[in-house]
TrEMBL record:
UniProt-listed Enzyme Commission number(s): 6.3.4.15
Keyword presence, DNA-binding: yes
Gene this protein is translated from: birA
Protein's name according to its UniProt entry: Bifunctional ligase/repressor BirA
Enzyme category, top tier: ligase
Covered range of the whole protein: 89 to 332 of 333
Top-rank taxon: Bacteria
Lineage, broadest ranks: Bacteria, Pseudomonadati, Pseudomonadota, Gammaproteobacteria, Cellvibrionales
GO molecular function, one term: DNA binding
Amino acid sequence: LLRELILCDEVDSTNGQLLLRMEEGCGHGVAMFAERQTAGRGRRGRTWVSPFSGGINLSIGWQFNGGVQLLEGLSLAVGVALARALAEFEVPDIRLKWPNDVWCRERKLAGVLLELSGDLTDRCAVVVGIGLNVGLRGDSAAAIDQPWIDLQSVRAGIDRNRLAASMLNHLLPLLRDYPECGFGAYREAWLALDQFAGRPVRLQSANQAWTGTAVGVDMSGALILEADGEHKLFHGGEVSLREA
Ligand code: BTN
């Protein structure tokens, strides 16, 4: 499944580098790890803090034959794949926060950033970016603007290379099979790990906010918010979610 593995000491952003390769037509089946990113990207324009050897910074380039609708729910399914990789190392208390964070003990352990390229109608290319906190020191961690946790404080002694291999072992088959099986194959597993199931939440878009109870996700991965006896659906790109 993997055509090329690239290991870097330092890059601006592994997602950025793989997007360039996708545009040049040579990014499919390529995985890139970087020890440090100087301009790591997070969702919604945020920076992803990636100091030297503090985490696992991974991007995978994948080309799909088909339109962008094939990718519905993919970022949530990636969360399930990461949870499965972490379970192999007996990392406790792993949960998923919609749309695509991995949480542990009420704090963020890893984030997923999907970036698209291609014409998005007949063929679409995606770069799946994953940042996982392994051991962040105080000086770099000070720049993180949300509650975070790292692997070494929940389960010490995990071999980073083995975890990286396990992540690839879970992610590559997911990408290969996703056009056939879609989010339906991952929904039950996602719901079983839902950090906010049944909890009061607040959803925020650029100019509006909604509060209600999070009651899971539908077959496309949209969040279901229950408010005043009604269900409203939200898609990942539109809003951010917080505990109310
Ligand atoms: C988020 O939770 O906001 C998503 C964070 C994604 C970070 C990873 S690190 C590897 C890849 N390269 C990037 O520049 N970003 C992603």
